[in-house]
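Listing S7. Sequence submitted for prediction.
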Amino acid sequence: MIRAAVLGSPIAHSLSPALHMAAYKHLGITGEYTAIEVLPADLKDFIDSRDSSWTGFSLTMPLKESVMSIADVLDPLVVQVACANTLIRKDDSWSAYSTDVSGFRHSILNKGAATYKSVSIIGSGATARAAAAAVDETGRVIHVVHRNPDRCQAMKIAAPKSEIIFHPWESALPMADITINTTPSGAADVFVHTLSSKVHGIFFEALYKPWPTPLLAKWRSLGGESIDGLDLLVHQGIDQISLMTGIECDHQEFAQLLRKIGLAQLNI
């Protein structure tokens, strides 16, 4: 039996329990997956107090960086992006993984964007590093609009193949083939008024609540193509489900199933 949960704060809005439980049903396996409120300061005690019946955990903000000091084994990709969103029990130890990277990559490919030269990323935190790693490629330019210059080096490590150009938060959004917002709810609203009458490329909103975010709604109103946060949640979730169950899940099959479940949960 699978016993798992998504951890974070706030967590009540999470769609992950509905998606994971739907996947277990589709796979024909018994499982339990819940949402549990956990703060960074409490994460170690929480994990240490779990018995051997627990399979693993999904980690959302603000735990993606905190978990690195708790896991016994860090996947190489976790080391690269300095964050993790998945914790799996293996015997008596915990291994940390990042499925956010593959989630971004699958979402972009699912949109049909196989070739692109430039990416703008709003933010430079854990989700931004995962996005940067997902699009990292020799010859590609990644623009990063952010507030915290202390995070520049970590962004460079996350995407070692690309040229990375940093811009202060007050800048207008650089024109790029793909623009990705990785900031918390409301933070990127300041860029809504900076969009011109015609936008370029694809806008990828990592959030699914609110739906849509003001920036995503504005981009769409100007005729721009977009990828929403539900796609990211679904695709990173598929790889989490594979890690937790040991069953390789077909992305196309499960993406259709889980997106339908997610839209129903959002009343869309």
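Caption to Listing S7: primary sequence and predicted structure tokens for the chain studied. The chain has a mean pLDDT of 96. The two ends are 32 Å apart (CA to CA).
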